[in-house]
Amino acid sequence: MAASEHKEYYRNLITLVTGSAFAQLISLALSPVFSRIYTPHEFGLLAVFMSILSALSVIVCLRYEFAIIPARTGKDAFHLLELCFYSTLLTTILTLIGVTIYNLFISTNTVLSKWFWFLPFMVLINGSYQAMLSWANRHKSYKVISRYRITNSVITNIIILGAGLAGFISMGLLAGFVSGGAVAAIMLYFNIQKQSEPFKLGFNLAALKNVAKKYEAFPKVNLWQSIADMLLINGVIYFLTAFFSPAVVGLYGLTMRVLQAPFNLIGYSMGQVFIQDAAHQYNEGKNIQPIIKKSIQRSAFIAIPIVLPLILAGPQLFAFVFGEQWRQSGEYAQILAPWFFLDFIRTPLGQIPIIMGKQKRQFTITIAGNILMVISLLIGGFYFNKPLLMVTLFTALQSVYLIYVIYWIYRISVVTSDIRDDSM
């Protein structure tokens, strides 16, 4: 990478990290307050809601949002953006129908049913901002992305704090996430229109069909890949919900919320800048293995100071910071730390197989990871009925899986766009 490219990479990275840092620090600073206002039960309901929302967010744009960045022409990128918005609208309508049927004829949990009415709205919000973030990233509008993250965090946490202090405990967490997401997405749209690459949606059916066909690998392969990846992240919550109480889910949910904050602080920002740079170099026929090696080294260097204290004193740290009732969350953190470390290294590299056309092989590997996940969670949850054992088995098998994934991505990255070997 040339000196000018190094400077641009780090300038873009600093822009994104600054916004993400401020956003995540707000959440981290207020977490000890929230843990003393809301109980594990409320955090459990939030974990269930967010895990379902994340599943719907995976399919909302049919993964065409990831085609926006590496699209060969600006015209293709614009029509892909349109396609994402129309796919989001359709998914929102289907979600509303599904929620209505569930709440009226199936649900036995009145509190969770109230939460589910907000799912269609959040699907609309998430699908829209995912498409717009990819559009802004393609045009290197990193300041716009940074402002979005700050706005989302500030509004979310203010609402959660205000609702909790006012006594609206049952809906306070949900109200914060819904309000923050909605306002931030609206501001993201107007910021793109004013300060990035503005767009005006139309409906050219022929053009939409053309890009849908041209980039069909994304829904055909990457959609299933993303669903499999999502199950690897949320599988523990689904199994905890099936085998244990909402309070147990809430203890695990706080662990995930706290651990994801520092890793997302830099990880997502690094990934946004890295994939744009990697796609650009690959499309120019360059060997991208050197920048992947640097990404692995950089991620490991950043993650080690975070995971070591958790491994050495996770329960004590959580009990001190969040209160004694959250000590078991620290035990989960202690167990999950190696998995978070390896997943932090893998995350920026996750889109490399896509830009290299290795989606089918990646999907096969991810399915193997899902099988390992199900085995570990069934043994710990169904057979032994012990949540800590379930999470321990999950971490052990997933750590082995992630080591292989990182090795595989590094190995295939030596191939340039001019010479592709589909056997890798």
Blueprint of the fold:
Elements: H1 3-37, H2 40-59, H3 65-68, H4 74-105, H5 110-116, H6 119-138, H7 142-165, H8 169-195, H9 205-214, H10 217-243, H11 246-283, H12 289-322, H13 327-346, H14 352-355, H15 359-383, H16 387-412
Helix pairs in contact: 1-7, 1-11, 2-6, 2-10, 2-11, 4-6, 4-9, 6-8, 7-8, 10-15, 11-12, 11-13, 12-13, 12-16, 13-16, 15-16
Provide a quick synopsis of the model.
The chain has 424 residues and is an all-alpha fold. It has 16 helices and no strands.
Describe the model:
By secondary structure, this protein is an all-alpha fold. Helices cover 83% and strands 0% of the residues. The chain has 16 helices and no strands. The protein has helices spanning 3-37, 40-59, 65-68, 74-105, 110-116, 119-138, 142-165, 169-195, 205-214, 217-243, 246-283, 289-322, 327-346, 352-355, 359-383, 387-412. Helix 2 packs parallel to helix 11, helix 4 packs antiparallel against helix 6 (119-138) and helix 7 (142-165) runs antiparallel to helix 8 (169-195). The longest helix is centred in the middle third of the chain and has 38 residues, at 246-283. The radius of gyration is 21 Å and the shape is globular. It starts with a helix and ends in a 12-residue tail after the last helix. The mean pLDDT is 88.
